[in-house]
Model the fold of this input.
Amino acid sequence: MNISVKEWFKSGSPWVWMNAGAVAISIIMVVGLLGLIAIRGLSHFWPADIIQGTYTQNGESRIIAGEVVETNEVLTKQLIEAGIDLPDDKEFSIRHLLKIGNRDVYGSDFTWVLEDFLSDQAHPEMLFAAERREWGNLYGYLRTIKESGIEIARYEGNDKSAEYLALWDNLDSRIQRALDIRDDILQIEKHEIGAINYELERLRLKERSLQLKDITETAPFIEIEQRRKELDLKYEGLQQRLLDLYTKINRDSITAEVANGKIVEVQLAKIVRAFRPNDMGVGQKSLHYAAKLWEFVSDDPREANTEGGIFPAIFGTVMMVMLMSLLVTPFGVVAAVYLREYAKQGFVTRLIRIAVNNLAGVPSIVYGVFGLGFFVYFLGGNIDDLFFPEAKPAPTFGTPGLMWASLTLALLTVPVVIVATEEGLSRIPRSVREGSLALGATKFETLMKVVLPMASPAMMTGVILAIARAAGEVAPLMLVGVVKLAPSLPLDGNYPFIHLDQKFMHLGFHIFDVGFQSPNVEAARPLVYATALLLVAVIALLNMSAIAIRNHLREKYKALEM
Done:
């Protein structure tokens, strides 16, 4: 039977198909965006082959070596107008962005080269890459290994021989030795000496507090001084151990010949790892890739956040979101319960609901300014006056930190929790409440044992929406606690273990800092994609955890709805 176009539109089928198409397009766009971020970010950790060739331009030739980071086509006419001598017989010219490393030699990590000027391209197996803690990667040929300044091994050739492989094995073992010593140094500096410095500061504040209280007894001061002497003695012992370790870690060095023929000497203490990508198989590259990924999620950043890992940012993001959730949930639930269960429904209540809905649309930077003015300067300043007078003029809570960042984001997301909880409370039938009251329960007992359990899935929905919004916020955090590089984590082994007054790192701010504030844009670009992908993964993991809790609560209290 033929159906007219008018009847087809009346049936609603076109709108169903349009909605389905819109959903499909949205899914494709989201998947495509995540795929682009994943490809651009995750490919950065794969050990790319190093090419070597002769680059000839304006009659001058030089040997160049590096990783091909990007390849594109440029209008030949545009290059000729820029003063580059090229034949005009073709419309486009190919150029490559090479990561040549050796910033201490060349002054820059990256350079553009034209395919027309690059000849004698090869992938020498003995050309190695060394990731350094400063000055970027080193690309070159290993020549000598030195111990305490004395040469103990040398190789002048560029071919793969047993002598060279023995030299390389020697280098691997010495790099591992330096890494082990560095771990010992970090253990002493960050944990043992850090704990001593933290306790010394607490003793100083305690002594200052006694002075402010005009305590005249000498016993407390003598006890503080005795403890300080014990810590000083322990500190001197750790300092001696550090001197010994630094002497050991600075023992070994290597010399390498870079592409321009210059010999560079590098301390093994400054090398993270060394590898020969042109001589690695797929299996070796896969292991290297896995090690780099693990370093990215578990290590501290280095080289102005363009190398190393982002573990402090991951830790700070998760801790801030969890603290924000603990703060926003009771405030949002109590407000929603009052508005729905206790407040008299009238003009004032409607006005409050309108205000709550309008708060959800306030720009986040406004919350940041409010958090800085009220939480940090007013509330934090008064807390310092009341509880930490001995620390003044240095602020304790009167400065941006984790607590104020979490409170600011809790204030930002509380309208979401209020609205979601109210919706959940409104869906509970009146007969359930009346049945509970008829059985002798008080209104408070009905609320706590019947109404709130049934509304708990809606509360978790509000928390999920709050997490989704708060985890990616950056603007307010720039004013109330986040920093480019935090010296320590807000959670450690020093009493009181959780330091809510400390500043912290955040994945969103890390993306902003690396992407727009980095002095080395080309090196930072892939880390922007990788960090963005990780931020999406962290938010998804937090949301899935909250969804799992919500589903559990929904199943647990399903019987109350029947």
Remarks:
- The chain has four domains: 5-44, 50-123, 142-279, 317-484+499-506.
- The chain has a mean pLDDT of 88.
